[in-house]
Structure to design on (283 residues):
């Protein structure tokens, strides 16, 4: 009988393969056939029976308790984001795995577009759980012209152009993939489309995706190149949209009074001037 597919089981298999036995003082008396920890070793570290852990990986038990999941997080040296992710995967496994794919809604909550456009002092974007750009204000379109509404951050980032233009491409790629894992719904047709497209065309994406890293982005630093202003250090804030859709309002700011803040003002002012000149010529 084939082993049933479960989201939690797939995650546990991936994560235990990344853990080094030496980190736990485990010395192997014989060569290991596969990387990482054995199932029995994970079970021992988590304080649960090997038989029960095997049932979890194989999808024969789809209702693990919080205590069990928390113990596995400690055993695999994971964090709070991973624990939340595991709870979510367990809930998905407990649902009907044969249900039709979820269709991601393209409707934007009333007032969100107006909110994004109304933020005239900071670049702002509304992002979906699959990292599609749903809305972008004028400053965001000025700073990130490749991230217009209708485009997808991941599909744009895993291109030769982005690799050549990005200052910290590797770090941005790892963060974006981990963010998709955390916020995306694996039952979503759009989620599968983005993942499937990138898995076919990009080796680095396949390697990152196979790790099953998850990250809940809230505040992080980003280095961007702003034309003649050069490279600047900006601060990204991701504010979740209520309702459980996985959507988020993303803003880019700079430390008040910093050189980055001055460069950001000068860059956007110059772009406004260039845009105004172009419109005059057209008229």
């Amino acid at each position: 009988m084939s082993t049933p597919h479960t989201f939690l089981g797939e995650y546990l298999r991936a994560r235990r393969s990344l853990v080094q036995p030496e980190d736990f003082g485990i010395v192997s008396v014989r060569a290991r056939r596969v990387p990482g920890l054995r199932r029995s070793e994970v079970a021992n570290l988590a304080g649960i029976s090997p038989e029960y852990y095997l049932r979890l990986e194989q999808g024969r038990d789809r209702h693990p308790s919080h205590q069990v999941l928390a113990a596995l997080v400690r055993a695999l040296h994971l964090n709070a984001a991973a624990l939340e992710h595991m709870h979510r995967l367990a809930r998905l496994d407990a649902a009907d795995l044969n249900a039709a794919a979820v269709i991601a809604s393209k409707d934007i909550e009333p007032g969100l577009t107006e909110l994004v456009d109304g933020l005239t002092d900071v670049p702002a974007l509304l992002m979906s759980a699959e990292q599609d750009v749903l809305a972008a204000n004028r400053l965001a379109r000025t700073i990130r012209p490749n991230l217009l509404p209708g485009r997808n951050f991941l599909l744009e980032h895993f291109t030769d152009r982005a690799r050549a233009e990005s200052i910290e491409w590797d770090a941005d790629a790892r963060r974006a993939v981990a963010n998709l894992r955390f916020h995306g719904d694996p039952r979503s047709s759009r989620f599968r489309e983005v993942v499937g497209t990138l898995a076919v065309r990009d080796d680095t994406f396949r390697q990152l995706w196979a790790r099953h890293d998850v990250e809940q982005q809230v505040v992080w630093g980003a280095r961007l190149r702003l034309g003649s202003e050069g490279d600047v250090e900006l601060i990204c804030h991701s504010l979740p949209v209520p309702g459980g859709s996985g959507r988020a309002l993303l803003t880019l700011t700079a430390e008040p009074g910093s050189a980055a803040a001055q460069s950001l003002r000068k860059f956007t002012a110059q772009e406004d001037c260039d845009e105004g000149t172009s419109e005059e010529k057209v008229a």
Q: What stands out?
A: Residues 277-283 have pLDDT under 50 and may be disordered. The first helix runs from residue 7 to 16.
